[in-house]
Every structure is written in C-alpha cells, then in structure tokens.
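**Backbone geometry record:**
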Amino acid sequence: MFFSVTISQAQVSEQTLAMSWGSNNAMVLEIPDSDAKLVNKLWKGFLEKEYNSKTKWMRKENHWMSDDAQIAGLGGANTVDIYARADQSGSNVNVVMWVDLGGAYLASETHPDRYTEGEKMLMRFALEVARENTSLELKDEEKELKQIQSELKKLQSENARYHKEIEKAQEAIRKAEASIEQNLKDQEATAKRIEAQQGVIEAVQKKLKDL
C-alpha cells in the first residue's frame, strides 16, 4: 500500500504536549495521507544525513532522541536536544518535535528566528517524506505494470494455443471430408459388387432348377 503527499499540504503548528519530561512546547508537522511507520523510519535517517545528528529510539519514552545535536539554526553556538515521534491520526501523520535549547524549549514567542528555522527543518523533512512516498508509489505502479504485462503475455499465449487448436480441428475436418468422399465411392463400388453377386446367385439358382 502506498500513500502520496503534496509538500504544499504539509502544515506546522505549535502546541504544548506531554513528553517524558513533562508538558513542553512542541512543533507539530501534519503530513496528510502518510504512514507513521514509514515516517518514523525516515526521521532517523533525515537527522543523521542532513544534520549529522546521532538519533536513537527511546523505547520506554516512546520517542526519538537526538542528544547534543549541533544545528546552528536552532541552537546557535550551542548544542540542542531534539525529541520527536510520529503519530498516526486517521490517514494523516503528526510529527511532534520538541527542541530543548538548554533550560527552555523552542517556542515562537521566545525564539522567533530559531522557530522559523525549526519550521524550515520540518518542511524539509516533509519533502523527504513526499519523495519517499512518491518513490513507493512509482514502485507500486511499476509492479502493477509488470502484472498487466504478464497478463497480456498469458493472453497472447492462450491466443496462439487457440489458433493451433483451430488448425488441428480444420485439418481433422479436411481429413474427415476426404474420408467421407472416399467412403461414398467405396459404398458405390460395394453396391455394384452386391448387385453383381446377386446376379451370380440368380444364375446359380436357375442352374439348380434346371438340374
């Protein structure tokens, strides 16, 4: 099953949500028509590839943790701790991200410039999800094409078999027609033999009477 997402449909909002260390300000990226398992899988790779930030899954806390991440747009010269998880909400996925700046969590009111960078970061991730979903969609459609091509090949093979069966049937009909024609000739010849034989019998019967 595949999902498709248009990057322009993704939205970022700000909410106070519960996490392992209480309720804190979070950024929430809503990605329409996607899958939380896929999004969670992509998050780790995104942080490590784009920001060289080691990210691990905290099973007990039920979220990702990027400890001491060096992301200048978010922390300046200081490192930040990023916590995140992806929740399924109907057909949509909500990516919740908390950014611990060291004593305070990223918020638009207190850190407007950094918050804007956080929005850009989440939108880049939404683009990553869109690319992956589109890639999966392409693979799914290519698989469908192969299946249709396989069906066509099967139909073509059946068509060739039907033609061979028709040719065999037509040859059998030709042979049967020839046999019918020969049979009629043989019947005619046999009828003449019967007539001749009856003539012989009549001659012998006459001879017998004359004795």
About this structure: Strands lie at 11-19, 22-31, 55-58, 63-69, 80-89, 92-100.
